[in-house]
Design goal:
By secondary structure, the chain is an all-alpha fold. 77% of the residues lie in helices and 0% in strands. This is TetR/AcrR family transcriptional regulator.
């Protein structure tokens, strides 16, 4: 096999490994999935797997980076359409999050904190997202979608703390992640929406289609 074909093969294999690994991590939690399990599912040797990904954390980090990049690209594509106002983008974001939560075992989130490099990466993208969200809220105020004179940085932090608290108290075992997330964002979003913004929120909530296409 020539060098170019070998490189292409390795890249394709790396992508396939990420596909299988993330599916396993999301379904079963991270701790419950061994590198051996992934190798067996792919019918490749452990040596081949470890040549491409030195350990589970490296593989997990690669998978999260890929999935977060795809998530952001999809949201940006929606936001770039001029027909969509700021509230529609907010609701699209929450809808995408709930669709994602429907496929993830809560154990996945509980296991994440055990991987330092992963935690550092998630903290970085979370901080970057918060910076973008403040600018976004400012744009929404100009559109008369969001209320003026509110501290949106504080609101974002409070929402984060409520979600974090729900995870730490493990109340998702009773209510489910989607149900918790829906109730939290409904209260928060309606709280900072203008009359114009509420029309968008109500349209979304009345549709009752959390996993479907919005707008």
């Amino acid at each position: 096999m020539d060098t170019s074909r070998q490189t292409a093969y390795r890249q394709n294999l790396k992508g396939l490994i990420i596909d299988v690994a993330m599916q396993c991590f999301y379904s079963n939690g991270i701790r419950n999935v061994k590198m051996d399990d992934i190798a067996k599912k792919l019918q490749i040797s452990k040596r081949t797997l470890y040549e491409l990904y030195a350990n589970k954390e490296e593989l997990l980090l690669a998978g999260l980076k890929r999935d977060e990049s795809a998530f952001e690209a999809q949201l940006q594509l929606f936001a770039d359409k001029k027909a969509h106002n700021a509230m529609e983008v907010v609701m699209k974001f929450f809808q995408m999050q709930m669709k994602r939560l429907a496929t993830i075992n809560p154990c996945f989130f509980m296991d994440l904190h055990k991987y330092g490099n992963v935690v550092a990466y998630l903290e970085t993208i979370h901080a970057e997202r918060n910076i973008r969200s403040i600018k976004f809220f400012q744009a929404g105020i100009k559109e008369d979608i969001f209320l003026k004179n509110l501290d949106y940085e504080l609101i974002s932090k409070l929402c984060d703390e409520m979600i974090r608290g729900a995870m730490e108290k493990e109340i998702y075992r009773v209510y489910g992640l989607q149900h918790i997330f829906q109730n939290i964002i409904t209260v928060f979003v309606r709280g900072f929406a203008t009359k114009k913004g509420l029309e968008v929120v109500d349209k979304y909530l009345e549709s009752g289609n959390l996993n479907g296409s919005l707008f």
